[in-house]
Each structure stands twice: as C-alpha cells, then as structure tokens.
Amino acid sequence: MSLNIENYEEVKKEIERLKKQIETHSKETIENPDTVLEFFTYSIISKKEQEENLTIGHFFPLIIKKYPKIKPIILDYVNAIKELIIYQKYLSPIILGFIPIATLAILDSNYIKYFEAFCKRIKVNEIASEKKEAWIGTRKEIRKILNHIRWKKSTMSFLTAYLLILKKHHHISLPEGINKSLFDVFIKQFLERVYNQQRKTVALRQTAWVSVFKDYHLHQLFQRCFHVPKVKERFNNLVERGQIPAFSDLENSSHYHYLEEEDFEEEEFDENDPDYILQLMSQVAQKAKRDKKAIREFIGFINRCDFNHPSGPQEEAEIMWEVISAWKWCPETVDLAATCFFTPAQWGPDQCVPMQRPMPEDMFDLFMQHLCYSAFDLEKQPSKTYNPNYQLNLPREDAFQQSFRFSFVIELLRNMFDKEEEELKREVNKAIAQNFIPTYQFLKSGSF
Fewer CB atoms inside 10 Å of the end CB: C or N, the chain? Predict the structure, then answer.
C-alpha cells in the first residue's frame, strides 16, 4: 500500500480506515493469517518522490512528528480496540494498537494515562509471559522507536510507566551517553511510583532494593551506561541510607568500556552467566553501531557465543538485528547477516536479519554467495552451462529442505522480486542443483 506522507488528509484517512476495520470486523477475522485486511504495510512516498518501505515502528513517530494534530485521531483508533488482537500478517506478529499508543506516550506525556489504560485493557503483562512471539515482534518495534528519537522528559515518564507495567519483560536499555539530568528524573519517578511516595528521598532496606533490581531487570536497563555489578553495589549503599541515587553518584563507580580484541583473548566467557554474556554483547554491539570497522569484532564475538542457551527470549537476536539495521547494506553488514544466518541458535534467521530491507544488486549477490558457500559448498564446484530446462529431482534437490536455516532466505526473495514464492523456490533450486549461485540478474531474468 502506497501512502503519500506529504498529504495530511491522506494520512488522516488511513488512520480512520484502520479504526473502521476494527469496528466492522471481528477479532477472529483480523487475527486470521490469511485475512485480506491490511495494517501497516506501507510504501511511504516522501517529498523526494521516492518510495521507502516503513515498518510500524517508523510510521507512527514519522506522522506524529510531522502532524501533531493527528494525535487525537490515532487515540480514537486505539480506543476502538477493546480486546487483545494479534495481527499475524506482518514480518512478526504484533499486538494491534500497542505501537501507536506507546508512540503517543513516548512523544507526549499527556498520553501516558491512555497507554496505561490500554495495557490494562488487553492485559499486556500476561501477553508478554504467555504469547511470547507476539510480544517479541511488538517490543522490537518499540526499541526501534526509542533508538531513533531524542530522549526527553516525556520519554522518561513513558519508561517509568512501561517498566511498572512490563517489569522483567521490558527489554529496554537506557542509551549510552544519556543526559544525566534525564537519568535523575527517571530514577526519581521510578522509585517514587514503585513505593508510592512523593518525597525526594525514599528509605529502603537493602534487601528491598535487591528485589526491585531483580524484579524489574534493572541490570538490562543500565547495561549501556554503567558497569552493572559495581552500580548495583553502589545503589544498595545509597538507598540503605535513604537516598535516591543520582547519575553523579554512580558514574564514579563505573569502569564501563568497550571490549577490544585483546579483551577477548584474555577473558573466557562464563557460559553459566547469560546476563554477563548479554552485557558484553551489548557493549560490542554499541561500538559496531558507531564504527563500521567494529562489525568484524562483533562477528568474532558472535562466533564465540553459545546461542542455544541465550540469556532471554531472543534478546541477543534483537541486538544482531539492531547492528545490521544501523548501516546500509554493505560488505560488512552482509558478512554479519550471513554469519547470523548460520549461527546455531534458538531462533531463526528472520529474527536477527532484517530481510524486509531489499539489498542492492551487488550486495544481494555477495549475500547469496556467502549463504551458498556455507550451506552447499558451491565454491568448490566447477562452472558449466546453465540449463533452464533442468528437471529437478525432488525432494533430494530441494535446497530449502536441505538446509533449514537457508530456507529463511525466501523472505528476502519475496521482498525483492515480483514473483510467486513457488516460482522463486523452483528457480533457486534449479540454479543450486546445477552448481550455480542464484544472482540478482538470474532471479530477475531467468538467465546468467
């Protein structure tokens, strides 16, 4: 669906259309994976007259910032959702209504009460525990929003509400280099709301704080800003004296630094401490998101980890996704995507590689080369003339059945080529069966 983002009336009508779909169709119809109803699968036409595919996590921040007057219309749409609806016809299942109301609350604190009411209405904390796939898809979009905005006081108010509702399921980290005064605002709001007090100081027993630290997964929240074990100890000491910790109280206890190559050589990972592995991975990822040269270091880290025993439901996969998404497709990100594709893990490649992002022709060819080398060892095979009439010996020559992880590439192919899935699979199988790597030109034209 194309949407002209420069035309307010067109954007307004689209939000009204979404509301009407909620009001006129049953929950069962909307949740059906084969539904013809469409939610948030847009090609946005910008003032540059170029089309750009946007996910829901990019769409709502874009239109709210561009058209502040649209906020009440979005709220009307969300208020039309009276019960939990999981929309399946998306890259990952998502909780309908959660992203728009969360975006309103992130950007405007006046909408936090509506966000809290919506979460209560659909019992989001139960969803996070029981319907993990839908929650993973939803929280991934929330993280996209938080990663692409300038944090301010309204963001901290949202974060406080978000943590109180989701507790250990929040999967949010404060950004590295966060404004110190914003950090202090958040801690004050958070502790006062946790303990229902409006005073500037909160007297807590140390054991009570340890419980809060664990219950709300604050080690994850602080991991980009501080060295968590030292901060936790400092926090305990301060609250035991009846003080609300400030950023300035904690920064001197932090010896936070990015790991370099020599750190890996000297230090063995403790496979029994998944939280420690996640903290290290987040540090290396932050460096890779700032410096493209550090992607090689991030790949080295991945190759040393055991993702069959991750720290939490797909947290590491989301970090991989974020590093790849931080850059345009280039040799470094293609190499990382191929590494993620074949790294043994408790999640599929579609959870760590953004395959909804089409690749330029040369990067696509490089990516397919990496995949075919890894899955089918084609680099050692002699070249010969391609036969378009080759008769496949199925299922023996079905590449998508031969390699479970390779099979996920079909999602990328569907997003890049205007062909039916079965036709794409047949062409890929015919190429690989004859020891050819399926290139962009081949999948476009049918010939090498």
Answer: N
Query: What is the CA angle 57-62-66, rounded to 5?
Result: 160
From the list 427, 422, 280, the residue with the least C-alpha distance to 368 is 427
Query: Bridge-partner residues for 51, per DSSP?
Result: 45
Structure tokens at 223: 């991991």
Backbone angles phi, psi at 355, to 5 degrees: -80, 0
Q: What range does the domain containing 427 cover?
A: 363-448
In a domain, 123, yes or no: yes
Tokens of 272: 């029994």
Q: How many domains does the chain have?
A: 2
Q: Which of 114, 140, 164 is the last residue of a domain?
A: 164
Write the DSSP assignment of 92-161 as a string of letters: S-EETTHHHHHHHHHH-GGGHHHHHHHHHHHTHHHHHHH-HHHHHHHHHHHHHHHHTS---HHHHHHHHH
Q: What is the pTM of this model?
A: 0.57
pLDDT digits over 74-92, tens only? 999 999 999 888 877 555 6
Q: Are 269 and 307 in contact (CB under 8 A)?
A: no
H-helix or E-strand spanning residue 191? helix 180-194
In a domain, 288, yes or no: no
Per-residue pLDDT of 255-280, as tens digits, reads 333 333 333 333 344 444 556 677 77
Q: Is 130 part of a structural domain of the chain? A: yes
Compute how many other C-beta atoms are within 10 angstroms of the C-beta atom of residue 227. Answer: 17
Residue 215 lies in a domain: no
